[in-house]
Amino acid sequence: MAVWITALLCLWALAIAAIDWQQRRVPNVLLLALLLPAVAVLAWRGTGILGIGWLPSLLGLALALALTLPGYALSRFGAGDVKLAAVMGLVLGWPLVVYALLVAGLLMGLGALLMVLMAGLPSVRALRLPTAWTLLTGFVAVLLWQAGGW
Q1: Is 78 helix (H, G, I), strand (E, B) or coil?
Q2: Nearest-angstrom CA–CA distance, 47 and 57
């Protein structure tokens, strides 16, 4: 994978994480900024931005949706988080999206635990934390791992 692609994807992730942290929303325009080129490259070359084929890309998208839609149905994820996970799934593909979502899940749990302990809240249900940063941390971790940065 080219270093400049990794750098651009990391900058994209940083922009979304910063906006979600401040505004508690994931802008659709930034999701489309990756989704449209990712689909175009996949259609044109037959492999995605990271060199992943159609089937693993679609499986990654489907898996990300399957794992995040229940959170949305239970009001634990916002719609932007689900769309973000789907874009991540398309770009990373199967099985890399599993690793990204595993990192995200661990960070979400740890962050919620720390917030409950620090704020003295009776349960995690009282929290409304931004979650895009955890999804994007998993995304960046997998990108760097794939690029040989770890």
Answers
A1: coil
A2: 9
Contacts of 10 (CB under 8 A, 6+ apart): 140, 143, 144
Q: Which amino acid is at 60?
A: G
| Residue that the structure tokens 């990654």 belong to | 60
Which residues are CB-neighbours of 148 under 8 A, at least 6 positions away?
none
For the question of whether the overall pTM of this predicted structure is more than 0.70, the answer is yes
Closest CA to 108 of 149, 68, 58: 68
| Run of H or E including 31 | helix 28-45
Render pLDDT for 41-75 as a digit per residue (tens, 0 to 9).
999 999 999 999 999 999 999 999 999 999 899 88
Cα–Cα distance measured from residue 66 to residue 12, given in angstroms and rounded to the nearest whole number: 24
**Residue 149 pLDDT > 60, yes or no?**
no
For residue 49, give Cα distances in angstroms to 2, 46, 87.
Answer: 10, 10, 12
Beta-strand ranges (E) seen in 28-137 are: none
